[in-house]
C-alpha cells in the first residue's frame, strides 16, 4: 500500500485528491494538512511514501518547503503540483529535489500514475512537459534535459533509444562496451530511473529517437 500525505490549504482540493487516490486499491491517504508547519508536525508522527505538496502552500513557499523536506526527511518522496504553468515551476522544483511535477489542469488519471511512479523512486513529468523541457520552442533545437546531460550522454541515450545494444552503441561511438555500461548507469542516475524501460521512456518523451 502506497501511503500519501496531502499538503494543500484548500479543503475542497484536499478532499478531491483524496477521493481520486483512494479509488485506487493500492493507495491510502494517511493524512492531510493545510500549512507547512502542520506538514512538518505531521511528518514527526507519520511516515508517508509520497507527499503531494501544493506549490503555494502558506507560510513557506513550495520550493523552500521542498528543500527542508529533503533535508529533514530524505526518505520521503515529494510530488509537487500547482495551478501555475508547468514551464514556470517544474524545472526549479525538480532541481530542488521533487520526484515529479503535476499541473492542476492535468487529467485525473495522471494523479494516480504520478503517485505510483514517484513512490517507486522514479521521476514523473508529463510527456508534454518533457518535450517542452527538451526543446527550445523558438528554435526547436534540443535542450539539455534538466541541463544535466553531457553531449556524449545524449548520444548514448539516442542510440539506446533507437534499439541498439551496448555493443552496437560502443561500435557506433568508438567506445568499449564497459564505457557504454558506465554511461548507461550514469544516465539512469541523472534521469532518476532504475531500469532500461523507464530510461527509454524518458528518451521517447524527449523525442531523442
UniProtKB/TrEMBL annotation:
UniProt KW keywords: DNA-binding, Phosphoprotein, Transcription, Transcription regulation
A GO molecular function held by the record: DNA binding
InterPro entries per the UniProt record, alphabetical: CheY-like_superfamily (IPR011006), NreC/VraR/RcsB-like_REC (IPR058245), Sig_transdc_resp-reg_C-effctor (IPR016032), Sig_transdc_resp-reg_receiver (IPR001789), Tscrpt_reg_LuxR_C (IPR000792), WalR-like (IPR039420)
A Pfam family it matches: Response_reg
Record-annotated HTH luxR-type domain positions: 142-207
Lineage of producing organism: Bacteria, Pseudomonadati, Bacteroidota, Flavobacteriia, Flavobacteriales
Record domain Response regulatory: where: 3-119
Any Gene Ontology biological process: regulation of DNA-templated transcription
SMART domains (alphabetical): HTH_LUXR (SM00421), REC (SM00448)
The protein's name: DNA-binding response regulator
Amino acid at each position: 500500500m502506497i501511503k500519501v500525505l496531502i499538503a494543500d490549504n484548500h479543503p475542497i482540493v484536499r478532499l478531491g485528491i483524496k477521493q481520486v487516490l483512494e479509488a485506487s486499491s493500492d493507495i491510502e491517504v494517511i493524512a492531510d494538512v493545510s500549512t507547512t508547519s502542520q506538514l512538518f508536525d505531521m511528518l514527526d508522527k507519520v511516515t508517508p511514501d509520497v507527499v503531494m505538496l501544493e506549490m503555494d502552500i502558506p507560510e513557506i513557499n513550495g520550493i523552500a518547503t521542498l528543500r527542508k523536506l529533503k533535508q529533514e526527511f530524505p526518505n520521503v518522496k515529494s510530488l509537487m503540483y500547482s495551478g501555475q504553468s508547468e514551464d514556470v515551476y517544474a524545472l526549479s522544483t525538480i532541481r530542488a529535489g521533487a520526484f515529479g511535477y503535476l499541473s492542476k489542469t492535468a487529467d485525473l488519471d495522471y494523479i494516480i500514475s504520478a503517485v505510483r511512479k514517484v513512490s517507486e523512486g522514479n521521476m514523473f513529468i508529463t510527456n508534454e512537459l518533457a518535450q517542452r523541457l527538451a526543446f527550445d520552442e523558438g528554435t526547436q533545437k534540443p535542450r539539455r534535459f534538466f541541463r544535466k546531460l553531457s553531449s556524449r550522454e545524449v548520444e548514448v541515450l539516442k542510440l539506446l533509444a533507437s534499439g541498439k545494444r551496448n555493443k552496437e552503441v560502443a561500435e557506433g561511438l568508438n567506445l568499449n562496451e564497459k564505457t557504454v555500461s558506465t554511461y548507461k548507469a550514469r544516465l539512469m542516475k541523472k534521469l532518476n530511473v532504475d531500469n532500461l524501460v523507464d530510461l527509454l521512456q524518458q528518451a521517447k518523451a524527449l523525442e531523442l529517437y
